[in-house]
Amino acid sequence: MEKKKGKKTTGKKEHHLWKSRDSAQSGQKALALVRTVYKLPNEKEAVYGALDKWTAWETEFPVIAVSKALKILRKRGHWVRAIQVAKWMISKGQGATMGTYDTLLLAFDMDKRVDVAESSWNMIIHAHIRSVFADMEELRVKPDEDTVRRVARAFRELGEEEKWKLVIKRYGLKWKYIHFNGERVS
Predict the structure, then answer these.
(1) What span, in angstroms and rounded, lies between the C-alpha atoms of 134 and 168?
(2) Are residues 121 and 104 located together in one domain of the fold?
(3) Strand partners, 180
């Protein structure tokens, strides 16, 4: 019988206090969160308090479960609750992703709060556009043409002509025409 060299195992399992973000059980957690927020009055303090209590004993913020809950709320058309959960998640410094922002902006629009959606969009653009482009430049990644076009359009719509010109100058923009129902659109 050959002996293995190296680490000797005793058959005991190691236990860690911090667990990795595991998507197992996140579906049940998401449904529990949705059920919890359904029962609450439409008050920010009540919703945020319940959500804080819901995460109180978690070792890590349950990003996956909250994201799934947002998808459920979006699918069911519960726009006010989707707004509350998304804003709470962002206020905790979690889930600042395009998916969360997309759900938040859609929920504002569906709740007939276009003015809030517009101001939120402006906040998102100001908070994240500079860092995205700075990261891309640092890594020497040239954005694709569609990204350049969207960022340039966003700066122009925000009235930031200097930033618009800088994006066009730095990354170039070839004009391309798309045909829709036989007509050329740019």
Answers:
(1) 15
(2) no
(3) 183
